[in-house]
Structures are given as C-alpha cells and as structure tokens.
Amino acid sequence: MTRIVLAPDSFKGTITAVDAAVALQTGWTDVDPGAEFVHRPMADGGEGTVAAFAAAVPGSRRMPVTVEGPTGADIDTSWLLLPPTGDAAGGTAVIDLASTSGIELLDQLRPWDADTTGFGQAIGAALDHGVSRVVVGIGSSGSTDGGAGMLSALGARFLDAAGAPVARGARGLADIASVDLSGLRTAPDVRVLTDVTNPLVGPRGASAVFGPQKGLNSVADITLADRGLGNLAALLGLDPDQPGTGAAGGTGGALVVWGGVLAPGAAEVAELIGLADAIADADVVITGEGSYDGQSGDGKVPSFIASLAVDAGVRAMLAAGRITADADTSLFTASASLTDLAGSSDAALAEPARWLRAAGAELARRS
C-alpha cells in the first residue's frame, strides 16, 4: 500500500490548500484505489495559514470574532485555538492577517487609509481568552500602515504634535510626533510567520517593493509612505534595516517591537503541524502552488517540502497551476502542470479542482 502525504500550499485566489489536497487525493485514488493518505495542507504565513493548522491539528477550534476590517467596517472572521501543550498551557492562538486586514477584504485599493486595526483586535481577543502562545501569519496585507493599527488595537497611542491621535493607515504616519506604549498589552510567546526578508524602508522596503500592489503607484507616493514608516521606526526605536520588518506593510516591524520573533513561514508551519514526521512514514509527498517559477526555490512551500522529502528518502511530486521554463524541478520525481493538462491557463483557473484531480491521476500513473 502506498502512503502519500498531501501538503500543497493554496493556489492563490482559486482554491485553498485544504481543497487542493482533497482534489489530489481523488485523482490519485482513481488510478490507485488502495493508497493511504495523510493530509498536511501547508501555508507560509499568508492565505490559508489558519486552515492549514485547523486541518492538521486534532482538537483545534475556530473562535469567531468581529473586527474592523481594513476599511474600518466590521467583518466576521475567526482565529484558531490549538489545544494546550507542555510549553503552551493556555493553548496557542493562530491568527492570520489575511482574514482580518488582508487585501482580499478590500472592495478597492486604499493605499493611504487601509490599516491593521482588525488584526490587532483579533490578537486582543486571543489574549482575552488566555492563550500562552500566539502564532501569526502576516501574508496578503492590504495596507502600509507599519502595523500602527495593530499596535493601537493592543493599547498603543500614536499622537501628533498637538497630542491628538493621528489618522489611521499610512496617511497618519508622517504626522506622528510621539508614541505612548504605556497601555500596550504584554506579549506572550509570539511567533511571526513570513517568507519576506525585506527591511522596513529604502529601495527594498515595504513601500518601494510592496506599496504598488496596494495602490502606491507614483514615486511621490512611495517616497512619502517610506518617510512615514521611517518616522514610525525612529519613534518606536526599531532598526528599519532589520530583515523582515518590511513584511505586511511594516507590520513585521511592529510585531518585533511588541516582542514577536520573525520566523520563516513554511518551516515554522511544518514544525507546528508535524510535517517532517508525517513525511518520514510516507512513500510519496505531493506538494504544489499556483505558480511554480524561478522564485519558488527561495523558501517557498514546494521547494521546502521537497528538501524535507529528500532528507527522508521519500519521493517528492509537484502539482502546480503552471510550471514556468525557469523553474527548477530537479528535486521532484514527477510534476504536473494544471495549465498543460487543461490546455490553457484560463481553463485551469476556471476549474482548479477538476484539473487538480487530473494532476493527481497523472502523478499516480507516473509513480
């Protein structure tokens, strides 16, 4: 009997990691009905982080919460409570920025006014519950507020020269004249999942690199937002050149100030869901993502999982929405492109579950 670990990332905007794993299993079973499957859907701190933990950790519970989304309007979302462990007697909260302050929650880009207040409110709800550890995923951010909204929701105050609160979002950063952290809630053990190593400011900083995705389209806008982030860093005593502080529009830096420890997303998720142990007992591990390209070897989920498989002497296979010509697939014994199977990228995007089933069958035939 073939034992297969299914550990795809989400195919962004088309299908979750959980549903991708189900589709791959269905396709493989059509060819090999006797196979045994272990589901370990993956994430790297972005979209699908909470779902990955929920699928992999027995006894986890979704905890509903209403927060102010990136526009300021209330949204109903949830955080995940993991059962108590020896080093987290009060349990662990898993919270992703994507579902509280993420770009997918915006009806239109709001580069100056979107903020991370809702993310901070969800963290606050977990603290109110009494958790001992907080694991946060900070991918898919919709703002460039430097995490000021998050810190404000946790008790910090950002004041202008007259002592009044500044405007929310990136709009208010340059006006901050003083920061009052006396009311900031005490941080428990906080792990910050991110695959971003950019500093807070400068040509590789949050504004310059990620700002255009969030609507900062002109050089003048990027420069102004960058200066605002620099002002915030100076007042918080944060080194703006520290790698990772530019993640999520600067929220990575705010979490460091609060006491969080930045960690490579894929590796941290894998450790917390016991992925290495699952792979060690398997014959095959199948991973995947929407686009496997030349950037995918830099700490992304598929390449990370392939390296775990190689270390364990287990065959690694890849299913991706597309596999570009510059992608290195040498760590995989077989790969399948949904675009190739469907005949076009549009067809693959329209029916990802169908073509993931086809990919699962194709990989089974090539096993």
TrEMBL record:
<dbReference type="InterPro" id="IPR018193">
    <property type="entry name" value="Glyc_kinase_flavodox-like_fold"/>
</dbReference>
<dbReference type="Pfam" id="PF02595">
    <property type="entry name" value="Gly_kinase"/>
</dbReference>
<protein>
    <submittedName>
        <fullName>Glycerate kinase</fullName>
    </submittedName>
</protein>
<dbReference type="GO" id="GO:0016301">
    <property type="term" value="F:kinase activity"/>
</dbReference>
<dbReference type="InterPro" id="IPR004381">
    <property type="entry name" value="Glycerate_kinase"/>
</dbReference>
<keyword id="KW-0418">Kinase</keyword>
<keyword id="KW-0808">Transferase</keyword>
<comment type="similarity">
    <text>Belongs to the glycerate kinase type-1 family.</text>
</comment>
<dbReference type="InterPro" id="IPR018197">
    <property type="entry name" value="Glycerate_kinase_RE-like"/>
</dbReference>
<dbReference type="InterPro" id="IPR036129">
    <property type="entry name" value="Glycerate_kinase_sf"/>
</dbReference>
